[in-house]
Amino acid sequence: MDAFVTHTGTAVPLRRSNVDTDQIIPAVWLKQVSRTGFEKGLFAAWREDPSFVLNDPAYAGASILVSGPDFGTGSSREHAVWALQQYGFRVVVAARFGDIFRNNSTKMGLLPVVLSPEAVETLQKAVEADPTTEITVDLAERQVRAAGETWSFEIDDYTRWRLMEGLDDIGLTLRHADAIAAYESERQPWLPKTA
Amino acid sequence: MGRTLAEKVWEQHVVRRADGEPDLLFIDLHLIHEVTSPQAFDGLRMAGRPVRRPELTIATEDHNVPTVRGPIADPVSRTQVETLRKNAAEFGIRLHPMGDAGQGVVHIIGPQFGLTQPGMTIVCGDSHTSTHGAFGGIAFGIGTSEVEHVLATQTLPAYRPKTMAIEVKGALPFGVTAKDLILAIIAEIGTGGGQGYIVEYRGEAIRNLSMEGRMTVCNMSIEAGARAGMIAPDETTFAYLKGRPHAPEGEAWDTAVEYWKTLRTDDDAVFDKVVEIDAATLTPFVTWGTNPGQGAPLSSVVPAPEQFGDPIERSAAERALEYMGLTAGTRLTDVEVDTVFVGSCTNGRIEDLRAAAEILQGRQVRTRTLIVPGSMMVKLQAETEGLHEVFKAAGAEWREAGCSMCLGMNPDTLAPGERSASTSNRNFEGRQGKGGRTHLVSPQVAAATAVTGKLTAPADLV
């Protein structure tokens, strides 16, 4: 995955709450066996409405999505993350995320940033007033800066480090293969095997 | 200080713990289906990595499969299923394909085989993996990157979520089901209420539930935002497991039961959060909106957005009513329904089908009614009991096993504007088909609704 240290870009205000992953990428798009081409399915149903914010040319090229609370609830489909990234988003800002979506995002290098509802509102208003407003998301400093204001956000040290280095989790875990083998040797014998 | 059930199971699975890092957690069982696995297997191939523990892994075909006999017509769906077959063969993973007696919705077959046992860690690239927590393990959904991680390492790095107790005091009134209970819980705490928590369901009403009812409750934990839901194992759990194909036998059974009995929250353990629900106040429940938290007693009316103090909830309600084509103040029992779906990992088990059959016995349906068993084993059991004859005589369609209209990845979908009463788990916009409108209900309410054509509680059937 690509490393994420700091990113500056324009943003799209998505004034909806409970943006579930079925909206981010409808199930019909999940039949693909490849990892590419999901940008076409991003918010597919909502994009059919010409007044949907993503269809507003003023927000073309935006790389930060600023959403209402409970973004990415529901299904575990990582396709939601792929669709957002392939469309061009690097960051999603919201007051609360679905756990699985947030986890999937950090595996892929899409940064989920939790800010207070007030901060999200301020950002949305700033971007609506001027779509060219640039937002800087600084993972190194754990800060969001825009419109003359600065907000701090929380992210655990380990995930931050992994994102900043662009490290693959599997490679990191396999460094502890001995510990896994040791654990395996002590598992209870009655535990089920599928074959 | 004592420990909660979640803490006990978690600690038992820590492979490695280091300051400033997530725990590395061993995974006892990995369930696979065709939708969220192809890119994970591709990743393994690209990195030249094998599956570390194929014998702790099981695959089935469920999301795309048609529920009428015959091959998959949609070439894209077919390719996805064929890809799973190739991957399972290449990596040596047991697969229950379409037509196999063991095939079915992944969360239905695990417990049926006895693969889901107390105290285990279970994952699957599917958010409803929380179902398996009904046996007293930690079970949660993961994305495709994590599927690949588990395939390669049989572990996951994870921070232990906080713990929440949902205490359901008292007994459920007659006619109130596990589904009504979980819908009421989600309406109470909201779709984000469980976010960051493992929920342990406790109390008299939970203990009185059958294993299948417990699975229905745990299944929808994710709809309240929780990472997992769990219920301490007890005699009900042991009785369900005894004699299943993968349950321990003989001395191993006794040893296992002895251990399983320790899997309960200590009396002096402290949860990070406690929510109390009074079971006696509950009645049949239904959703009116487009997220599972937008629900109300079936005996009430469609709420007015102005009732919601929070501006975000208010605008969500406005949008939901518009999408659902509902007017505030309408009695929910006056809402007309086109299609009834009984099935899914939430309510596709034998007790659900028995409950629906009891209501449909000697009656006729007025709606398109799909009865979709959760697995081939459930189907066989239902046919042995003659339930299929009841459904067919009532005018309902008796189908093959699969996820079906829960998410409409197969041909079972709603048309735009079509309204369903569905025993599944999500009423999201377009979930059951583009433009479709979903009301989540119990199997009993679904069956009664099929009879009248309007949302109906069984008690109100003449």
Question: Which descriptors apply to this entry?
Answer:
heterodimer, A: 195 residues, alpha/beta, Aconitase, domain 4, 4-stranded parallel beta sheet, 8 helices, 8 strands, globular, B: 462 residues, Aconitase, domain 3, 2 domains, 5-stranded parallel beta sheet
Question: How would you characterize the overall build of this protein?
Answer:
The complex is a heterodimer of chains A (about 200) and B (about 450). Chain A is about 35% helix and about 15% strand. Chain A has one domain: Aconitase, domain 4 (Alpha-Beta Barrel), CATH 3.20.19.10. The longest helix of chain A is centred in the middle third of the chain and has 13 residues. Chain A has a four-stranded antiparallel beta sheet with strand order 1-6-7-8, with helices on one face. Chain A is built from eight helices and eight strands. The model of chain A has no long low-confidence stretch (mean pLDDT about 95). Chain A is an alpha/beta fold and about 200 residues long. With about 450 residues, chain B is of the alpha/beta class. In chain B, helix 6 packs parallel to helix 8, helix 13 packs across helix 15 and helix 13 packs parallel to helix 16. In chain B, the strands form five sheets. In chain B, strands 5-4-3-6-7 form a five-stranded parallel beta sheet, with helices on both faces. The termini of chain B are far apart. Chain B has two domains: about 260 residues, Aconitase, domain 3, CATH 3.30.499; about 180 residues, Aconitase, domain 3 (2-Layer Sandwich), CATH 3.30.499. At the A-B interface, helix 4, helix 7 and helix 8 of A face helix 2, helix 3, helix 5, helix 10 and helix 11 of B.
